[in-house]
TrEMBL record:
<dbReference type="Pfam" id="PF07364">
    <property type="entry name" value="DUF1485"/>
</dbReference>
<dbReference type="GO" id="GO:0008237">
    <property type="term" value="F:metallopeptidase activity"/>
</dbReference>
<keyword id="KW-0482">Metalloprotease</keyword>
<dbReference type="GO" id="GO:0046872">
    <property type="term" value="F:metal ion binding"/>
</dbReference>
<keyword id="KW-0479">Metal-binding</keyword>
<comment type="function">
    <text>Involved in peptidolytic degradation of cyclic heptapeptide hepatotoxin microcystin (MC).</text>
</comment>
<feature type="domain" description="Microcystin LR degradation protein MlrC C-terminal">
    <location>
        <begin position="297"/>
        <end position="470"/>
    </location>
</feature>
<dbReference type="InterPro" id="IPR015995">
    <property type="entry name" value="MlrC_N"/>
</dbReference>
<dbReference type="InterPro" id="IPR010799">
    <property type="entry name" value="MlrC_C"/>
</dbReference>
<feature type="domain" description="Microcystin LR degradation protein MlrC N-terminal">
    <location>
        <begin position="2"/>
        <end position="288"/>
    </location>
</feature>
<dbReference type="InterPro" id="IPR009197">
    <property type="entry name" value="MlrC"/>
</dbReference>
<keyword id="KW-0645">Protease</keyword>
<comment type="similarity">
    <text>Belongs to the peptidase M81 family.</text>
</comment>
<dbReference type="GO" id="GO:0006508">
    <property type="term" value="P:proteolysis"/>
</dbReference>
<dbReference type="Pfam" id="PF07171">
    <property type="entry name" value="MlrC_C"/>
</dbReference>
<protein>
    <recommendedName>
        <fullName>Microcystinase C</fullName>
    </recommendedName>
</protein>
<keyword id="KW-0378">Hydrolase</keyword>
Length: 486
């Protein structure tokens, strides 16, 4: 069996000031044909899975370009069209094929293309024809569009938030697409539009139980796969919103009914899905009053994983003004300040301006005397079997607070983000992490308590504050009850 695979993915924040350029992909995850390591990289997880199965089953695997750019603003037309045409050229050269497996995101927007994944899949379908199964793995923070459904045979999304199951879902996708290619199953997809914009961590109830119940349904009664598309709240496109996707073995009517039933259950939980958010002072007061530590304070409003710059200084300034010590915060994206620290060297005490650079929602820079605790070239953190570069990084101390400065924009994933740069996270009373929920898998086990803080960063947790212009249907919370369920 001849199999082609490639990845083209990013998450596009329509309101981010940071453009996603060709260089964003080339300096992010960028593996030309045959160069991908055996270690998975989230959106490229299908490739290591395919390599393993190809060896075991005697398949011929043709590897195309695999690339992912850290979430930011709109992708330039030049970047998208260049990468798309590169992959389509590899696909044409690989023909004839028995199946195609793609790594996608589902929330990629480019200049002139509101639905990059739908566009890419349509062009793939035009090349391979109607009889070659096309499968795609997608991030649950996606826009599950009509074009994606119409042009793929099987789509499988991550079930976990944080996305610790990307390899597991890749195995699921590859096995199902292979079964379709071998005519052992006849996959059909059913979708229900939940008409809501939500954030739904699976690290807490009720989402944890809901996902576990969905997983238990798969493999029974002709149900091949169930995915929940939570949506990406900061993509200003017409089809934004949560959806339920059910893939059945030829049972369209049954799939439609199940998708609607699960979708209405999902919708009924909408007010309970997001964690409670504290004010900055309320969160700090709570942590300081508690015994032991570390107390982990998450700052989703400045999460690079949602396209934010990750250089907002509001919570750090409050901590400095309150004289809080025995704390750490990171990562702050500031390549210039990190570079200055590498120039000064470990142990130097200098005046430094850092943070507050990318836009109005970044706040004002911090100007302070700092001690440089450590400098690391190509500093890395781990996440779900992958290593993620934070670039040349520096740990500094301002007052009693240790701050991690990074040159490659990324969110907080694991405590080794701190420890690998000379900051002991276990010794701190307070850890502030710039992340929505990907931090939770690795930080929760070391935390005395985890709670979430609303700051003035560019990703407001109140979605009614987002200035959408493209919505043409009513969705919650912009509308109180678009499904009329109370």
């Amino acid at each position: 069996m001849r199999v082609f695979t490639a990845t083209l993915a990013t998450e596009s924040n329509s309101f981010s000031p940071i453009p996603t350029t060709l260089e964003s992909f080339e300096t992010g995850v960028y593996f030309p044909s045959g160069t991908h390591p055996d270690e998975p990289r989230l959106t490229t997880s299908q490739l290591p899975v395919l390599r393993k199965l190809a060896k075991e089953r005697g398949w011929t695997l043709i590897e195309g370009l695999c690339t992912f750019a850290e979430p930011a603003g709109l992708t330039t037309r030049h970047a998208y069209e260049t990468l798309r045409e590169h992959i389509l050229g590899e696909l044409e050269a690989a023909m004839p094929l028995d199946m195609v497996v793609l790594g996608l995101h589902g929330a990629m927007i480019a200049d002139g293309y509101d639905d990059c994944e739908g566009d890419l899949l349509a062009r793939v379908r035009a090349i391979v024809g109607p009889d070659v199964p096309v499968g795609g793995e997608f991030d649950l923070h996606c826009h599950l569009t009509k074009a994606m459904i119409e042009n793929a045979d099987i789509l499988v999304g991550y079930k976990e938030f944080p996305h610790t199951d990307h390899t597991e879902r890749a195995v699921e996708l590859v096995e199902l697409t292979a079964a379709a290619a071998e005519r052992r199953v006849r996959p059909v997809m059913s979708v229900f539009d939940c008409r809501m914009i939500v954030s739904a961590p699976t690290s807490r109830q009720p989402m944890r139980g809901f996902v576990d119940r969905i997983k238990a349904m798969e493999g029974k009664n002709g149900i091949l796969s169930i995915s929940l598309a939570h949506c990406f709240p900061y993509g200003d496109v017409e089809e934004i919103g949560a959806r339920v996707l059910v893939v059945t073995d030829g049972d369209k009517a049954g799939g439609d009914a199940l998708a609607e039933r699960l979708g209405r259950e999902f919708y009924a939980m909408r007010r309970e899905l997001a964690p409670p958010y504290h004010t900055i002072d309320g969160a700090l007061d709570h942590a300081l009053a508690g015994k032991g530590g570390p107390f982990v304070l998450a700052e989703p409003c400045d999460n690079a994983g949602g396209g934010a710059p990750s250089d907002n200084t509001e919570i750090l300034r409050a901590m400095i003004e309150r004289g809080i010590g025995n704390a750490a915060l990171g990562p702050i994206w500031d390549p210039q300040a990190a570079g200055f620290c590498h120039g000064f060297g470990k142990g130097a005490t200098v005046r430094l301006r850092f943070g507050g650079k990318a836009g109005a929602a970044s706040g004002q820079p911090i100007d302070a005397e700092v001690t440089i605790l450590e400098t690391i070239k190509d500093h890395r953190q781990t996440f779900a079997g992958s290593t993620i570069s934070l670039g040349d990084s520096a740990a500094i101390r301002v007052g009693g607070i240790d701050v991690l400065l990074v040159s490659r924009r990324n969110q907080a994933m694991a405590p080794d983000m701190f420890s690998g740069c000379g900051i002991d996270p276990l010794a701190k009373k307070i850890l502030v992490v710039k992340s929505t929920n990907h931090f939770h898998a690795a930080f929760a086990p070391i935390a005395k308590e985890v709670f979430y803080v609303e700051t003035g960063g560019p990703l407001p947790r109140d979605y009614s504050r987002i200035p959408f212009t493209r919505l043409s249907r009513e969705v919650w919370p912009l509308h109180p009850d678009p499904l009329g369920m109370g």
